[in-house]
Amino acid sequence: MGQGSLTIGTTRSFARHLMPGLLSRFQERFPGVRVYLRVGSSQEITEGVLEYKYDLGIIGRIPFPSKLRIIPYSKEEFCLVTPPKHRFAGRKKVSVKELKNEPIIIRESGSGSRHAILSFLDAYDVTPSVLVEASSVEFIKEYIMKSRGVSLLYRPEVQLETNLGLLVSVDLEEGPILINTDIVFPDEVELSPSTRAFLSMIESKI
After folding, report:
1. 168 and 86 in contact (C-beta within 8 Å)?
2. Residue 206: its pLDDT value, please?
């Protein structure tokens, strides 16, 4: 394939940690395709795909409309994050049940990680005591550093802070939280050559 363009919508976290490697592989194979990367919540990207603002979206799983086609892509790990002096910080593992009365900071409405985490907690009959809802992961990390609650965050997003001792990640006794990541695009619509090329790369795991 020669020239072309591809507009992809994704979340801020995935734009930082998931997309660079994926787009690098794509552009190595299709150097003539110009890629436009746009960010938003999973809900915003879903709506943008339906409105044809994006050729496709790569987002955390939420309840999707029937007008979208879905390709499961990966499972991304989230972890419990606490301040260094928190009572959980010195422990190897914490039970999900212990989060029942813990002030917790969660992502905003429309976030795929929010949907998955609340579903995960609900499976263990845990209704979180929500302290703050925020769209900014950077804000959430800074807030935790000030000993203002805990959160469940995408592990790559907190790798630097945990390495520096500014935050602590704690494993859950019930196992890791794995959040499904999906590729979404309009159903019953003829896809552009660039979109087909990208999906072909994904399906062939190149």
Report:
1. yes
2. 46
